[in-house]
Amino acid sequence: MGESAMDKAKGKAKEMAGKATGNERMKSEGKVDQAKGDARKAADKTRGKAEGLRDSMRDDK
After folding, report:
1. What CA–CA distance (Å, rounded) separates 37 from 51?
2. Cβ count near 14 (within 10 Å)
3. Where is pLDDT greater, at 56 or 9?
4. Angle CA 41–38–11, to nearest 5
5. pTM
């Protein structure tokens, strides 16, 4: 499990715990953790595409 998936899972658990206990702060922290996981996933995807582009432009012939 990657870090982005772990952030999302941790965030979902916090959000659900916050909902169950009525703790708005914990609920909000959970949403932030989930957003962090989404951002990390997008950054990793972009980094992978950039590396692929760089490799395709390299002239190793």
Report:
1. 21
2. 21
3. 9
4. 125
5. 0.74
